């Protein structure tokens, strides 16, 4: 650690000691109590808006409730209905497709990062511009891509026309719609993974690379055996944010297709919203039950993430 | 440096690389460039199906001034600012304190509280939707900016705590010990020793949270309804309904809505990237 400039780190001695007289009890217990005082407001907010609602949702999923009137206890009936609900299985299938294909953002981001990790003039600006899609809201990304796919004037079909193919109505065709939306989602997500890898590549040990070069190692073997192991922290974060992004996919679907055509592009997060809070009805109980399933899927990943973090904490 | 620096390769490869980058960039940003071109076209181009040819005239000023002076767009933008800025302040303030508590003090519940924040941050929004909407209705804050701000502060505290705690852990602990030996109270250690060192973390989080909240769409739809409280992400859909099939205006509107986080990113790039990598990838 470099010596700190005096302005940012006042020497402790310069701080006036607190309180005139030593207060006995507070003195002795100060270090044990202070963290709880600092934690109190944060924990309070977080509990009210995040932790408790998770349990409330579990509870609501056992009721038949329109959000206004009296809630009626129905036990597991919502889950039973879900078991027979085709739309639920369509959403679940699409969630799996999202999860799998979204992971393409990781190798994609790595490829672009490797392509851009050079020192030619103007490369900084190129890097920022490649990162651009991530900064834009998903709503705008959705709009941009629905015009890109438009069957009458979209750029995609113009380009397909050059090869004598098309036109394809990507968002109107139940075979293509989910893939079309995922492609739109991959655009910002790849940019995110790219920036993670670019930062990671900066920290790769140059001596090991030189040693590899002296051994005449081929670039690809170097990548696999020397570079990728050092990029593990970046890969872990890329994996975490990509999985979360895939399971949170809502904005793009809502903007581009609103679940259509014929509900073929729904995922659990969108279907839940549709059931609980749209013109299809206000079925809070059923919506909460779908959310619980989504939460349980997420919980598998959350457990894995926390377990990895816990191991690293212990290792320190 | 990996891969092999291009200036150590043959001249041919260098020229190929130099000319490939701009082409790759244009392809990468093609959908965006298309929208930018749409936004300066006149209405007539769309009527004549001149989508991709040379614009018959440049109507950038007309289109954008329509967005700013004849629609609800300025109002939505103002709402977004009034939602985003208090959220940034609130979440950063709360997480400076939680991060300090979890980063400095050793007590048994420490790691579990930390994991609770982290886990909560990963939760899918939908599991919170029904209870949070209900709570907001009960508080009489439905369809208000305050309701949205309170929820955003609470939820972002999870991510911010993760970030702040890791940052504080990396500070030299000797500074705190030295202060304790001098008899400085814990509260003063926070204000005078730790807080000044947290400036880069605060900057990184502020930029990042600004972008997250500005771009939020889900909670805007769940907790607000009308032009008096909706942020620009939700407003753009009503804007588009108002100008259905007027692609030049919809494009201009989208660009206006997307611009503030983009500007933030370009102005504070270094902090932004430090935040995104969670400080873990240095």
Automatic annotation (TrEMBL), chain A:
<feature type="transmembrane region" description="Helical">
    <location>
        <begin position="286"/>
        <end position="307"/>
    </location>
</feature>
<comment type="similarity">
    <text>Belongs to the binding-protein-dependent transport system permease family.</text>
</comment>
<feature type="transmembrane region" description="Helical">
    <location>
        <begin position="222"/>
        <end position="247"/>
    </location>
</feature>
<keyword id="KW-1003">Cell membrane</keyword>
<feature type="transmembrane region" description="Helical">
    <location>
        <begin position="36"/>
        <end position="55"/>
    </location>
</feature>
<dbReference type="GO" id="GO:0055085">
    <property type="term" value="P:transmembrane transport"/>
</dbReference>
<dbReference type="InterPro" id="IPR035906">
    <property type="entry name" value="MetI-like_sf"/>
</dbReference>
<dbReference type="Pfam" id="PF00528">
    <property type="entry name" value="BPD_transp_1"/>
</dbReference>
<feature type="region of interest" description="Disordered">
    <location>
        <begin position="1"/>
        <end position="20"/>
    </location>
</feature>
<dbReference type="GO" id="GO:0005886">
    <property type="term" value="C:plasma membrane"/>
</dbReference>
<dbReference type="InterPro" id="IPR000515">
    <property type="entry name" value="MetI-like"/>
</dbReference>
<protein>
    <submittedName>
        <fullName>Carbohydrate ABC transporter membrane protein 1 (CUT1 family)</fullName>
    </submittedName>
</protein>
<feature type="domain" description="ABC transmembrane type-1">
    <location>
        <begin position="91"/>
        <end position="305"/>
    </location>
</feature>
<keyword id="KW-0472">Membrane</keyword>
<feature type="transmembrane region" description="Helical">
    <location>
        <begin position="96"/>
        <end position="117"/>
    </location>
</feature>
<feature type="transmembrane region" description="Helical">
    <location>
        <begin position="129"/>
        <end position="149"/>
    </location>
</feature>
<keyword id="KW-0813">Transport</keyword>
<dbReference type="InterPro" id="IPR051393">
    <property type="entry name" value="ABC_transporter_permease"/>
</dbReference>
<keyword id="KW-1133">Transmembrane helix</keyword>
<keyword id="KW-0812">Transmembrane</keyword>
<feature type="transmembrane region" description="Helical">
    <location>
        <begin position="176"/>
        <end position="201"/>
    </location>
</feature>
UniProtKB/TrEMBL annotation, chain B:
<comment type="similarity">
    <text>Belongs to the binding-protein-dependent transport system permease family.</text>
</comment>
<dbReference type="InterPro" id="IPR035906">
    <property type="entry name" value="MetI-like_sf"/>
</dbReference>
<keyword id="KW-0472">Membrane</keyword>
<feature type="transmembrane region" description="Helical">
    <location>
        <begin position="149"/>
        <end position="168"/>
    </location>
</feature>
<keyword id="KW-1133">Transmembrane helix</keyword>
<dbReference type="Pfam" id="PF00528">
    <property type="entry name" value="BPD_transp_1"/>
</dbReference>
<feature type="transmembrane region" description="Helical">
    <location>
        <begin position="76"/>
        <end position="102"/>
    </location>
</feature>
<dbReference type="GO" id="GO:0055085">
    <property type="term" value="P:transmembrane transport"/>
</dbReference>
<feature type="transmembrane region" description="Helical">
    <location>
        <begin position="20"/>
        <end position="40"/>
    </location>
</feature>
<feature type="domain" description="ABC transmembrane type-1">
    <location>
        <begin position="77"/>
        <end position="268"/>
    </location>
</feature>
<dbReference type="InterPro" id="IPR000515">
    <property type="entry name" value="MetI-like"/>
</dbReference>
<feature type="transmembrane region" description="Helical">
    <location>
        <begin position="189"/>
        <end position="214"/>
    </location>
</feature>
<keyword id="KW-0813">Transport</keyword>
<keyword id="KW-0812">Transmembrane</keyword>
<protein>
    <submittedName>
        <fullName>Carbohydrate ABC transporter membrane protein 2 (CUT1 family)</fullName>
    </submittedName>
</protein>
<feature type="transmembrane region" description="Helical">
    <location>
        <begin position="245"/>
        <end position="267"/>
    </location>
</feature>
<keyword id="KW-1003">Cell membrane</keyword>
<dbReference type="GO" id="GO:0005886">
    <property type="term" value="C:plasma membrane"/>
</dbReference>
<feature type="transmembrane region" description="Helical">
    <location>
        <begin position="109"/>
        <end position="129"/>
    </location>
</feature>
């Amino acid at each position: 650690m470099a010596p700190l400039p005096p302005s940012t780190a006042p020497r402790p001695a310069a701080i006036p000691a607190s309180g005139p007289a030593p207060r006995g009890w507070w003195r002795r217990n100060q270090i044990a109590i202070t963290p709880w005082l600092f934690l109190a407001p944060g924990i309070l907010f977080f509990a009210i808006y995040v932790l408790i609602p998770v349990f409330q949702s579990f509870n609501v999923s056992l009721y038949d409730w329109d959000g206004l009137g009296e809630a009626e206890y129905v036990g597991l009936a919502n889950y039973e209905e879900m078991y027979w609900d085709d739309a639920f299985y369509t959403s679940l299938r699409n969630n799996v497709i999202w999860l799998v294909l979204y992971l393409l953002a990781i190798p994609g981001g790595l490829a672009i990062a490797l392509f851009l990790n050079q020192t030619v003039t103007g490369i900084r600006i190129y890097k920022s511009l490649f990162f651009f899609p991530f900064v834009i809201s998903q709503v705008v990304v959705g709009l941009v891509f629905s015009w890109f796919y438009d069957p009458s004037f979209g750029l995609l079909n113009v380009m397909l026309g050059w090869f004598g193919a098309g036109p394809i109505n990507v968002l109107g065709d139940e075979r293509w719609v989910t893939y079309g939306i995922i492609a739109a989602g991959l655009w910002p997500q790849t940019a995110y993974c790219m920036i993670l890898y670019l930062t990671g590549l900066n920290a790769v040990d140059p001596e090991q690379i030189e040693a590899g070069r002296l051994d005449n190692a081929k670039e690809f073997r170097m990548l696999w055996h020397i570079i990728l192991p050092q990029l593990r922290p970046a890969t872990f974060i890329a994996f975490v944010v990509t999985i979360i992004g895939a399971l949170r996919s809502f904005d793009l679907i809502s903007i581009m297709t609103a679940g259509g055509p014929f509900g073929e592009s729904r995922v659990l997060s969108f279907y839940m919203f549709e059931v609980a809070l749209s013109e299809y009805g206000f079925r809070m109980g059923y919506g909460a039950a779908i959310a619980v399933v989504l939460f349980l899927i997420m919980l598998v990943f959350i457990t894995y993430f926390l377990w990895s973090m816990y191991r690293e904490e212990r290792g320190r | 440096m990996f891969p092999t620096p291009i200036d150590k390769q043959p001249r041919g490869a260098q020229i190929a690389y130099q000319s490939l980058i701009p082409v790759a960039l244009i392809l990468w940003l093609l959908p965006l460039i298309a929208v930018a071109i749409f936004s300066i076209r006149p209405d007539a181009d769309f009527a004549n199906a001149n989508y991709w040819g040379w614009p018959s005239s440049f109507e950038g000023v007309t289109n954008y001034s329509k967005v700013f002076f004849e629609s609800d767009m300025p109002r939505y933008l103002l709402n977004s600012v009034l939602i985003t800025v208090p959220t940034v302040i609130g979440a950063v303030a709360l997480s400076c304190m939680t991060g300090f508590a979890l980063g400095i003090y050793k007590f048994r519940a420490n790691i579990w509280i930390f994991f609770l924040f982290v886990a909560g941050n990963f939760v899918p929004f939908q599991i919170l939707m029904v209870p949070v909407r209900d709570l907001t209705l009960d508080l009489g804050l439905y369809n208000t900016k305050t309701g949205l701000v309170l929820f955003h502060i609470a939820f972002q505290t999870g991510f911010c705590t993760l970030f702040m705690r890791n940052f504080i852990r990396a500070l030299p602990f000797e500074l705190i010990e030295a202060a304790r030996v001098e008899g400085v109270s814990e509260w003063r250690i926070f204000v005078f020793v730790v807080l000044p060192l947290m400036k880069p973390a605060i900057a990184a989080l502020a930029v990042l949270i600004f972008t997250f909240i500005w771009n939020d769409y889900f909670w805007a739809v769940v907790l607000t309804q009308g032009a008096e409280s909706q942020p620009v992400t939700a407003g753009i859909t009503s804007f588009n309904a108002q100008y259905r099939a007027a692609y030049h205006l919809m494009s201009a509107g989208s660009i206006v809505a997307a611009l503030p986080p983009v500007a933030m990113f370009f102005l504070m790039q270094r902090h932004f990237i430090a935040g995104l990598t969670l400080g873990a990838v240095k």
